[in-house]
Specification:
CATH class: Alpha Beta
Number of strands: 4
Strand order of the largest sheet: 2-3-1-4
CATH topology: Alpha-Beta Plaits
Distance between the termini: 25 Å
Helix content: 25-40%
Strand content: 25-35%
Shape: elongated
Structural class: alpha+beta
Length: about 120
């Protein structure tokens, strides 16, 4: 049995932020820039609060079976909720999408490498 790798994206919108909270998010904006976005086990947050109140967390998780993706998505949503709540940031419209990388279609390079394995 092989381990499956899951990428989970949790999206939402900041809600009811005070001036101090907006200032704190703006001060940390460079650390959370979308150009630094990565899927990590602890989750990576990206946002551009100056442009719009939306945010995205990216999580990397794994499981042994295809069904484990549902638990991984729930863990990711809970981790995002916890991070936001611990810092006192209001949020709404939290939703997640998850992808099992073992089921992801191969790009041109991946297909070429897979073909070489059978040559």
């Amino acid at each position: 049995m092989s381990t499956r790798t899951f990428r989970i994206t949790v999206r939402g919108v900041f809600h009811g932020l005070g001036a101090d909270q907006r200032a704190a998010l703006l001060a940390d904006a460079a650390e959370h820039d979308v150009l630094r976005a990565a899927f990590t086990p602890e989750g990576h947050l990206s946002y551009d609060i100056a442009a719009r109140p939306a945010f995205t967390f990216r999580f990397l998780d794994s499981g042994d079976a295809e069904e484990d993706i549902l638990d991984a998505a729930e863990r990711a949503e809970e981790a995002a909720r916890a991070w936001l709540t611990e810092r006192g940031y209001g949020f709404k419209n939290l939703r997640s999408t998850a992808e099992d990388l073992s089921q992801a279609p191969l790009g041109k390079r991946g297909r070429r490498e897979a073909a070489r394995k059978f040559d």
